[in-house]
């Protein structure tokens, strides 16, 4: 497999081309890289990302593939050991979060270009779980985000991201989500399809929180404030009940999934673009054949919700 020395030499360029915001690059260059040698899980996570990008750039090189698979396995095992500790040391939280982020990025990356190979068209349970892992694994980011937010000593992630003007404040995830103003943002068509009423809450309707997150995203995208950090916040913060519905290929869950993928339509980042385009094409094809005429109508023109927000 590709030597670690070669992967290390590629790290700086890998970070510069993998993070779309200046604070993200700065955090990794000034905080993560200088400390990674003391944190084995983080070191293997960085080497895995470096190898994965090299494999993306040189798909015929099996050495890069073996390297990214090896380092990802080791990083994941070490991260799981940290997360299963009775108590997580506060001083390690930022590094654990960085490792989790790297594993999420690697899982998100794909070189698949054929929509019919999506998990949506698989019937074997194990195959579906493996193919959908890139989305399911994002739950760990949401869990760690809550821990970081409760850390009385503060987190380098929160400090830097709070200071980033590209991280739009209208998309900040709060524990009191959703609010009445969020309910007003939900498009009526989607509210009807997902059975959202004034009595709906995150506890009694699995579509509520995902729909609120999407409605916020539609709004900020229509205003020209949208950014990658905002859209990627969806995966970590949807509830487990929604993930299970998505895994079951529930049409309403798939509809919200499709609308989320639509937000990345113009994304060119190497570890995001191929995944979102391919999955979007697959779910769009599937929902355009739904027996529910309302879902077919949305699939016919999903961007209508962004245009509607622009006119408000």
From TrEMBL:
Q: Name one GO molecular function term.
A: DNA-binding transcription activator activity, RNA polymerase II-specific
Q: Name one Pfam family in it.
A: Fungal_trans_2
Q: Which superkingdom does the taxonomy of this entry point to?
A: Eukaryota
Matching InterPro entries, A to Z?
Fun_TF, Sterol_Uptake_Regulator
Q: What PANTHER family does this protein's entry cite?
A: STEROL UPTAKE CONTROL PROTEIN 2, ZN(II)2CYS6 TRANSCRIPTION FACTOR (EUROFUNG)
Q: What is this protein called?
A: Specific transcription factor domain protein
């Amino acid at each position: 497999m590709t030597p670690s020395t070669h992967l290390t030499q590629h790290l700086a360029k890998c970070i510069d081309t993998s993070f779309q915001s200046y604070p993200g690059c700065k955090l990794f260059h000034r905080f993560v890289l200088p400390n990674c040698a003391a944190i084995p899980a983080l070191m293997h996570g960085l080497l895995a990302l470096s190898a994965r990008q090299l494999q993306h750039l040189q798909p015929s090189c099996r050495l890069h593939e073996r390297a990214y698979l090896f380092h990802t396995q080791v990083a994941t095992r070490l991260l799981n050991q940290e997360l299963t500790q009775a108590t997580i040391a506060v001083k390690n939280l930022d590094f654990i979060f960085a490792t989790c982020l790297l594993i999420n990025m690697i899982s998100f990356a794909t070189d698949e270009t054929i929509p019919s190979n999506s998990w949506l068209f698989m019937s074997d349970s194990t195959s579906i779980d493996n193919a959908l892992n890139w989305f399911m694994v994002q739950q760990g980011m949401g869990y760690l985000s809550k821990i970081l937010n409760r850390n009385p000593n503060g987190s380098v992630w929160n400090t830097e991201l709070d200071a980033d003007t590209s991280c739009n404040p209208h998309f900040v995830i709060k524990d009191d989500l959703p609010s009445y103003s969020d309910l007003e943002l939900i498009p009526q068509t989607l509210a009807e399809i997902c059975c959202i009423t004034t009595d709906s809450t995150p506890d009694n309707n699995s579509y509520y929180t995902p729909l609120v997150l999407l409605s916020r995203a539609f709004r900020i995208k229509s205003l020209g404030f949208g950014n990658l950090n905002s859209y990627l916040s969806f995966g970590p913060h949807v509830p487990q009940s929604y993930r299970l519905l998505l895994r079951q290929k529930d049409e309403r869950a798939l509809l919200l999934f499709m609308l989320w993928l639509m937000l990345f339509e113009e994304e060119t980042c190497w570890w995001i673009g191929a995944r979102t385009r391919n999955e979007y094409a697959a779910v769009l094809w599937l929902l355009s054949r739904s027996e529910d005429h309302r879902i077919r109508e949305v699939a016919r023109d999903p961007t209508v919700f962004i245009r509607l927000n622009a006119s408000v």
